[in-house]
User: What shape does this take?
Amino acid sequence: MALHRPIEILLVEDNPGDARLTREALDEGRLLNNLHHVRDGVEALAFLKREAGHKEAPTPDLMLLDLNLPRKDGREVLAEIKQDPRFKKIPVVVLTSSEAEQDILRSYELHANCYITKPVEFEKFLGIVRLIEDFWLQVVTLPGRDGPAVA
Assistant: This one.
């Protein structure tokens, strides 16, 4: 199989521990990926728009978005990117600790592609990230990609 370019993933997560676990799980995966991590919604939008220190930022193939973020929360980020023709095709996986029905409903109303509640147990969290990788990066065909980036 031909080697394709790495999958570009934007992780929007303010919890350093969750960001580290996500990176570790993706590093252990089977796909080549570049994980870009930002800590709040303002920085996420700057990354997408290539502003404020993100001039060379790639357009992500997939976004992992926490809801409860400082400065601009994930709901606001989701609303903005899904209304912007430049970014609305980017698949967004909401990966959050919230189990609130209103957060789930609102995320789908704002056109999230998937809503996953983060488990608190370490091994389960790693398992969830691996499942995200398996499904979104190996099963699903993403816009603008001709296949997965297999190592």
